[in-house]
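assembly run, all chains below
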Amino acid sequence: MIAGYSGADLAIALINVLLLGLLFVVGVAIARMRSLFAIVMLSGIYSLISATWFVALDAVDVAFTEAAVGAGISTALLLGAMLLTARTAKPEKGAMQIVPILVVLATGAMLVYATIDLPAFGDPDSPANTYVGTDYLERTPREIAVPNIVTAVLASYRGFDTLGETGVVFTAALAVILLLGFGERSLSATFNRKKDKK
Amino acid sequence: MTEIAAVAIIIAIGLTLVRALLGPTLYDRVLAVNSLGTKTVLFIGFLGFVLGRPDWLDIAVLYALINFVSTIAILKFFRYRSFQVPLHRRPVTKTPTEQGGDSV
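ok done. output:
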């Protein structure tokens, strides 16, 4: 696995390093900035770049969720939340600037420590590659014939599971919409009307 | 050759990122996010060819759709200060304060 890099392998390694470097720059910029609108925009950029990185890691389904939720919905939700608060964050003072970096460093150290126990990339003896995984790999081209095995598992072998999840998410969204409402009968419009009457 | 193009697109993403970081106006940042999304679409298309799986083009097209919708949402937020105003104009029969977020 390690020996014998070809040109494409080197290019992929370079792409990974560049994407992670961009993510690092965006993360530091989000931590340093005080304009909330710029932070919302940068978090959208962070989601887009990390979704691209997930595609480069061949985790296409995760990448798509990240792009839809991170860059789409959560940007809109954060902008809506920004309506209710100020436009700039207050700068932290003194010791409060040290605590977050300590938390981040400790979490990073724990994650790096956890990766030591992981099986090597592409290890044929790892749990993911020994039990049902080989079965899916062997049967998918014959039975379903989609190029991505994860898609086959999610949409066909566990199709009822995915259908149930979609039903749960749809019901939750419907309940939130019914409670908060949209347009003229929505909660915020009602509040605005009450404010105007006073 | 395709690899070089993919790396060049990442460098272009970095340049767009500089504009998003420096600003100075809000519209610079919106434009930077939008063009960064476009470059992401291009990059995923190239990456499929680098890794030998051009069927990733479908994902790139879906990214383009998400990028378009989120840009429209951000610009609508600027225009109306609310997401609850329909994009088409209704005939004005009420005072403007009753139309959702206009009074905010």
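Chain A touches chain B through 49 residues (CB under 8 Å).

The longest helix of chain A spans residues 7-32.

not gonna interpret more than that til we talk
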